[in-house]
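Form P-L/3: holo structure prediction, ligand copper (II) ion.
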Amino acid sequence: MNHRRSFFKTAGATFLGAAAVSRIGAASLPEAVMQQSPATQLPPPPPNGRPFQPMVTLNGWSLPWRMKDGVKEFHLVAEPVVREIAPGMKARLWGYNGASPGPTIEAVEGDRVRIFVTNKLPEVTSVHWHGILLPSGMDGVTGLTQPPIGVGKTFMYEFVLQRPGTHMYHPHADEMVQMAMGMMGMFIIHPRDTRQFKVDRDFGFILNAYDIEPGSATPRVNTMLDFNLWTWNSRAFPGIAPLVARTGERVRIRVGNLTMTNHPIHMHGPHFEVTGTDGGWVPKSARWPEVTTDVAVGQMRAIEFDAVAGDWAIHCHKSHHTMNAMGHAVPTMIGVDQRDLAKKITSLVPDYMVMGDKGMHDMAEMEMPIPDNTLPMMTGTGPFGPIGMGGMFSVVKVRDHIARGDYQDPGPYQHPAGTLASEYTAEPPEASQATAPGADANTLQVRKPTGHQGH
Ligand SMILES: [Cu+2]
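OUTPUT (holo model):
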């Protein structure tokens, strides 16, 4: 009970009073717990029902339930929310119970769950329980398996959780708009046997993406592919919490993809195995070591590894997905001497700035005038200077002395002597260079297309 109380206190959670509930016409509904903080809220151990080890939702939280006659009752409220994407930028999104993504729903294989969904959006909605085995009539597809949940109305979903696994929930009503606005959450079914698939730390997040014009706060909902903010749980680096673990611990990271493109999730440091997919757990004999796993649209992947001390980057390997909105339209100027050009332009535009003639790294340090409520393209600072990343990027921070249950950022890694790359100041050994036969190594050889036969 103590844990639960302190959870509510630290989470700064607020409760919808009985009045608010009766206003939606259903006084017997379980309270809808709200949460607006983008900080990671450690879920308390389950206060009742079957035991399980809760998952840590990165920059998120888990929804408390009410046990009623052996049924776990949850209450989701679909509503407009304000989400801080990273310090310096807030977005007007739609979500559940005060945040986007909505809270993680956690329950156990064999549990009967009853989920009330109250619609406080300006339009109809529904909830689809993505990947969960259930009766067809509980699947949440507007028009096909249920009428839409009207504005101000509450629907009830009820089903028994048949298999453990990593799942998600999202609307199946005006889907493109509602998902582009941030309506989604994770749904974790823990195994009935707590020893099964046991790990020391269990993290989870959803890959999502927004198209928010620099300087504005509301996503453009008709964007199909050209999103400009690549986020984990509606957070962009450096707003994404680090994944903290102790050396030698078994760590699981669960990733679901509700963007409109695939994301090759790459982790530095220890090799991992994909241990879970949309369909449940992968048998041990069918796993192989990996450093990158592609998470396709609508898919879920759980990876596991044995933690090794260090600061290990974890990120999407599409390099434009580790950038924020600002600067996508900057032309490539590498190798272009802009000095004369700059002189001419400054006579017309006094603020004109030469950018990117030696690459773009320096932009990470540059104090550029950008519109309010906009994240710089590449940002974040480490112990050795600017990191020059944004979007889908975080750090797995593993240390020898981290207490069980401690998820606080331990600060930068102290590299043991002799294990740190450094500048070499003596005479370097001769470097070999590959050259094409007969070519001047300094001349760029351009081969023009010859005719159309090749097409
Ligand atoms: Cu990506």
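COMMENT: The pocket of copper (II) ion is lined by residues 230, 263, 316, 318, 321, 392 (CB under 6 Å).
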